[in-house]
Structure formats: C-alpha cells, structure tokens
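tool=predict chain=A
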Amino acid sequence: MPALLRQLKTTLKSLFAGEAKLSAANGPQVHALERSGIRAECHRAWPTDGKFREGWDRLCQISPHATTFSSPTWQQNAIGPTLPQGSLRLITARRADELVALLPMELTPTGFLESTGHAVSDYLDPLVDPQHERETWPAIIALIAELWDRELKAMTLHNVRHDSPCRVILPEIADAHGLTGDQTIISNSTKIELPSSWDQYLESLDGHERKELKRKIRKAEEQAGAKLIEIDGTKWHEPEFEKALDLIEMADTTKGQWLHEHVRPLLLKIGPQLARENRLRLLILTLKETPAAALFEFPSPRGPLLYNSGYDPSQKQFSPGAVMFGLALKNAIEHGSQVFDLLRGKEDYKYRLGAKDDPLYRISIHRP
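tool=predict ok
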C-alpha cells in the first residue's frame, strides 16, 4: 500500500506541476508531432544535413515576407552563435520531405519562447509556405501546446508586419488549443512608395525639401565630383567594406558604441557571404574620390531595405548623408524598384524623404 500511495503521489504531482518539456535543460534533441499530413518539430540544435539548408533557401524564395533577416546565413550563421547555450528551440514543419515552415526561436532565462535576433533584425515574419499556411499553423501550435510546461510564460513573435498572414491565422488556432493570442504594436518601419521616375519622386516632396535635395546633390556633384558606387557579391572588396563600417560608426556618437559592439561583428562575420547570395549590397558615396558616406541595403523583390548608413561628419559642407540618400533613391527608381524601405525608427530625415509609417507587431501566445 505505501508503494501505491507513493506512486499515486508522484503521478498527481506530475499532473499538477506539469512535466518540464520545452524548458527542460535535458529534453530530447527533436520533439515531433504530426497532424493532417504536417510533421511539426522542435529542434534544440541546427540540423546539419544539406537538404535542410536547401529547404530553408526555398522558403526564402517563395515566401512574400522573406528578407535577409530570415535567411539561413543571417539566422544560423550570425544570430545562432550569439544564443546562450541550450536556448535554441527551432520550430520546423514538413509536408512529406518538403520543409514548409521555419521559426528560429530561443527560450529566454525569464521563460519566454521568442524570435531569435529581434534586437538586430527589423523584420521577423515567420517563414511559411503560402500554399500550406492553413494546415501548417495548426500543427505548429499543437506541438507548442503539447510541449508547454510550468516554466513557459508565452510564445512571442517579434517584428511582425501588419500584412503578415499569421496575424489573422494564429489567434484562431491558439483559441482552439485553449491559448490566448495578443497583438501589440511595438514599433514601426518606414517606407517610401516610389514612382516610375526620379522627377516624379522629386515632385512628391515638400517644396522646400525638393529644392534643398536638388541643391545639395548639385553642389556635391559640381564641387566634389560626387559619385555613388555599388558593391555587390560580384565585386566585393574587403577594405571598402570595413571603411563603410567605420563611416556608419562615426556618424552617430550616441549609437556608435552599440554599432561597434553588435552590428560590426555581425556584418564582418557574414557580410561577404550575404553579398555572394545577393542578400547584401553596399553603396558608397565618394567626394573628391574619397569615401564620405555608406549605406548597407538588403535587396528584395519590391526594392531595397536600408539596414544601416553613416557618413563622415568632417565632410558636412557637402551634406554627404542627404546626397547619399538622394542618389540611392534615384538609383532604386532607375532599377524599377517600387519601395524604398527604411526599416525601423522614426528619424526625421525619413519623413523629409517622403516615408510613411508601417506598424510592426509583437504577437504573444499564452495561457489565459
């Protein structure tokens, strides 16, 4: 009888306390659940087979919300090594042998399952095959619900754009599993809708801003021979890359240290590879044949995403920052871009260039 009582006590304790599944330090390397032909998995280590990487690249090609921030080079090669040991919780979904969803997540010490790299990644919309979205999310949420334990406070998706399908799908599915889905606007990105010609863009600006931008570009070209140089993976040059990083750090003394400690190591680690993959392009403005401003942009089907920029303050008589942005916009229009995306932040210069706000959401899935 005492043995039966002890067994019953242990069973009840397990039921009420909850077995530590997701949060357990010694949990299984892969936990899987299959539903309606979709196999959802939670990995504690990055899969090493080549087919996984190929599947990830395929998702980046077919997902309308994919960006450089969601690429394997950015997430696995740059963000991955910065995660605390044992914190990775990579959520994937497969239909037969085909990868149809991927969410790099980490378990934080405070008990949140959240998107990896959100401090340095402006967009983190989940990568889901649009052809299988409706059957994929139920399998993923069923897996999370099964793995939920007493240490987990919430599953948090950061930096989700307003038109991401998961904003509509996730609350419905969460409710079906006894979970609650909350959405909060936590930031914004800024975008410039581009017309078909440079003259039309100039006409869209406030009269004073239009006059000033034309004047600054003309002065820089006539007095300093201003030129905008494009550097991509076909002609990558390491010294120019490092000079661009120097310019970005010196332009903003308040952010310079943060950029030096976080952005510079990240870009030095993966910049050349991103360039070879056509996921990074560097624009350098030269004045009197000397680099005076730099801009890192991520190509996308609708137009470039500006990740970081900076200029040499000692060249301020030629307004290198304004000139660089003006020529970069002109370049984007001439290449047929529809949007010039300035990413997160409410800096004044973005609105002077004609940018409009686009909200970014944090989606939280938690128990009521």
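The chain has two domains: 2-188+361-366, 195-337. Residues 3-18 have pLDDT under 50 and may be disordered.
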